[in-house]
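Protocol step 4 of 6: structure prediction from sequence.
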Amino acid sequence: MSKPTFLQKLAHEILHNTENVGATTLLNTVVILPNKRAKVFFLEELKKATTHNIFAPEIVSIEDFIQDIAGIRSIDNIELLFEFYHVYLSVTEKDQQESFETFANWAKTLLQDFNEIDRYLLEPDKVLKYLENIKEIEHWAVSVEKRTELIENYLVFWKKLPEYYHALYQYLLNKGIGYQGLIYREAVENLNHFSENNTRQFIFAGFNALNQAEEKIIQHLLALGTAKIYWDIDETLLNDTFHDAGLFQRKFKSEWIYYKTHPYEWIVNDFTEPKNIHIIATSKAIGQAKIAGSLIEKHITEHPADLQNVAVILGEENLLLPVLHALPESVDALNVTMGFSSKNNPAQLLLAKLFKLHTNALSRNPNSYVLYYKDVLDILTHPLIEPYVNARELVNKINKNNYTFITHKKLTELQSESHPLFEMLFRKWDINSVAVLENLSQILLQIKNHLSYEIEDEKITNAFVYSVYKVINKMLTYFGNYPNIDDIKTLQAIYKQIIDVAEVSFEGEPLEGLQIMGVLESRVLDFETVIITSVNEGKFPAGKSTNSFIPYDVKRELGLPTFKEKDAIYTYHFYHLLQRAKNIYLIYNADSEGFDAGEKSRFITQLEVEKQPNHKITFHYFNPDVPNIAYQPMIVPKTARVLTRLSEIAATGFSPSSLTTYIRNPIQFYFERVLRIKETDEVEENIAVNTLGTIIHGALEELYKPFIGSLLTSSDIKSCFPKIDDEVLRQFKEVYKEGEIKKGRNLLAFEVAKRNVSNFLKLELDLLESGDEVQIVALEQTFERTITDSRLPIPVLIKGNVDRIELRNGKIRIIDYKTGKVDQKNVTLKEWNGLTEDIKNDKIIQILAYAFMFEENAQGREIEVGIISFKNLKSGFLPFQFKPDKTIIDIFSPEIRENYLDEIVILLQEIFDTEIPFEEKNH
């Protein structure tokens, strides 16, 4: 950077002020910065600014400094929630006490309000009484005697707020711990005592918005002459009375007594310097991540050694993972310094799945402990589990055998290879909460042991796992202290509440490589190239979300910050990022509709309207590449190896269904027959149509088997009716394996299968009683016949399974069962030409193939071939009919056979033709 950064200026200033006095002054100096992350950067600037060895001053964040004044240890939100619950139980009558789950819903908001009241040094009783009065006024129309119990309880809650506040405040104070607001209030109380015993010099640097407590402390130390403060504000922003970026500093400059006699340091003039501002509109979050990645790649190509001067500022924390995946491989060093919500943490998602699996099992039956297959597979296929648990075989067994609900005992039997992680994951939770938490802690430790700190991706995974591990360990402590909270459902509810306030903190080597950070983490830091994502309204600035019980007008009256002040804070951070940068990329989501819709941030409009003469603003619109053709059909040429495979199929047999598969989609034929790719096994939770068909086929085969070769009688059919239930059930178990058939849709499918078989038998019985003579020749039998034709390169075997062949009234009848609906028109042909070109003829092609295969076994008898449709049983047997005009031919004659074979040979010629590739059809 041509101009010095804020931290460079600060380092030179401190060294200049102390070099004449000696090293001891530097040792007695305390530098207070807005956050901890700036400390490393400031130390680096000190190191660069001095030529000899020196003792560095003490460098602390404002929070640590105020803790030091107050002498109270800060506790996190999770610990505070539990401590507050303990206080709540102690001041609330037993019959009015709420569960932790219900309590946490309102306690988190109330604690934020307590925090604000204390940070701004307001009188709690006055504020909380104000809230109570507002609620009373809201219900003024309801006379006291007409108030319901619900209204009374509601008003009692607001009356009790001062009691909650004072009880919590005193309880925490006695333990020497506190939330931020309490510490700030106590620091102000302790300020005189602290000043009297202080010999150090304080330097406050890089601040913008200050709460009332911070203002009071800083002004007190300035008045005593033991402190100095250095701001970082551009004169363009400070002098414009309408500009929000200077809102707070204009107030301090005009109101602080200190500035009546002292200069306001530092006011700089960097914002008007030449800058290249690129405003980039794109689609959705993933588009922003991809553009950020490509900008970094471009920067590395042009300036390979200058990555530490580049910062990616994420306006939305959810973009972190997409951005990390979009970074080019040439990024050799990376530093992520931002908080990331635990809700989106992969390790947390695993624990959420474990809670779901075990709580569902407990609610079904704690003894048999039945697990739902999707819950089991969700865990076994989770990216943190799958590589380490060796459960691929188990997953295949569950899919293959159609297990929908698995008992705990069965699951352990199915897992042939014992594995400690597997045992921990599926250990029963019919125990106390502490034991469950200890088990979860052990699972996370097992996962951590498999991760490496050497691999960049696994460093991030480690951070995820560690953050959840900390939460679980904290919960262990709390549940150990509160044995009365010992229910798994309550445990799950508490976990959900706690994970909402927990964050993943990423730490890296801040002085090397690319910097990825949140907006707040960028305070006091300056970069030459800045890439800011999610520059949308509601994201940057954050918008009007108010998580508070205190209404807006009350906040305005009491001097508490509202969305107006929060917007001003975001405005300052935004302009500070731009202040010393030369190349600025502002990326926003331009989609105005849909789930992730966005509106351009007012900051972009402000830059356009208030454009500085030296600013070069360019606009870019990046849209996803939409190809002219939405989908390019797949084309596979017929190579020598493909022809070899086709010859193998010709020798072993083309089934009639494989021929219709080719007509439907040649690529499907290529995958299924040439490459022999099977569909992966998946649990069939609800019985599919083809599975139902297999069950009905199997049941009819078993019921008719005893009668093969003999004449059917009415009594034969009548003897089948009592066997229907058992036979259909047996077929279900054989085909559907361990699938659940006693309830839900599957029970309906089971009843449908029974009814179809029963109706078929009734049809058969009616025909026999009306005089039909029937002899079963074959059931589910395979037949084959070779086509030898000069037009084909090799002889081709046609081979397939025929559902039923019978001798009915002196004619051979070949029957194909269909569970779907078929009408007579589906098996009626008007002309042979183009038979194999239209998939509508698939049923005709199939049944004529059966007739062709069986013809040699017919012993000169006439053959009729057709379909019985279970959804059209009233129509009975639907024979194939050739109907070129008014005449109908329904016998498989030599002429029909020759015409059929001509069309099949044309189809086979196409299959074997090397000039015609397998080309995908889009229906």
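Step 5 (inspection) to follow. The longest strand covers residues 774-787.
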